[in-house]
Amino acid sequence: MTPLFLRKAAGLLPPPFRRAASGAMLDLMSLPVRLADPERRGDPWQSVHNVGGGDFARAGRETLALLIEHAGLDRDSRVLDIGCGTGRMAMPLAAWLGDGAGYVGFDVSKSAISTCRRTLGARRPDFRFVHADVRNREYRSGGSIAETAFEFPVQDASVDVAFATSVFSHMTLDSISHYLAETRRVLKPGGRFMFTAYALTPERIAAIQQGQGHLDFKPWRDGAMVIDPKSPERAIAHPLASLVAAIRQGGLDLPADVLFGGWLPPTRYGGGQDLFTVRRPAV
Predict the structure, then answer these.
(1) Cβ-Cβ contacts under 8 Å for 241 (sequence gap 6 or more)
(2) Does the predicted TM-score (pTM) go above 0.90?
C-alpha cells in the first residue's frame, strides 16, 4: 500500500501529474510481484494508463464471469467495451469469444488504445479499438468532444452486451445520462448493459458520515458526493434514485436489484463498486 504521506502529496498535483505519479508508484510497487509471478510480468504498466493496481488478469476473469452470469454473455455475443483501458477485459474476451463474434472497445487514452492494438490486433482481427477524444477533467481535460455530445463508434442496434467498469464512477450525472441513451441506441432489443458506479442511499450516506466507507466522500452538488471537489471526476458517488431515474429516462429497464460492492459495507458481491445490469426492452 502506498504510504499515506505520498498519497496526500500526490493528491495536491493537477490530475495528469497526479495520475502519472500514482502510476509510477504502482509500477514500482508491482516489481516484486512481477518478478515472483511469471503470469504477472505481462501486466500493462500503470504509467501507460493508470487504472489502479491489483491483479490485472484476475480482475478481467472476474468481470468476465459477472458478464456471463448477469448480462447473458455467450460466445457469439457482439460486445461493446466502454472505457476499455489497456485491455483488462479485451484479453479474457479474446480467449473466450468465438471467432467473428465481434468486439469494439473505446477509451480516452491514446496510449491505452495503442497497447490494445499492439497486443491483440493481430490475434483477433474482429476486435476493434477506437480512441475517443472525449473531454473529462480527470482523465483527458484537453479532449475535443464533450461527454454529453460523444457518439459511440458502433451502429444502431448492433450490440448484444455492453459494459462499463469504473467509468460512471468518474462522470457527472448529465454525462452518465447521455452514455445511457447512447447505450440504448447501440444495443439490440433485449440486449444488456452491465456497469459499475458508486450509489448513495440515505443509509449509505449516514455510514459515510460515520467513517465506515473506504473512500473519503464529501457532499458536492445535486445529492452527489466526491472525494476531491477540485477534480470531481476523480471519484463521484450519485444518489441511487438519480441513477435509476437516468436509466429509465434513457429507455432502459433495471430488471434486477443493484449489487452493492465493497467500497461501503455491507456488500452483495465481490467487486469494489456497485453493480448494475440494465436491459433494452425487447419491443
Answers:
(1) none
(2) no
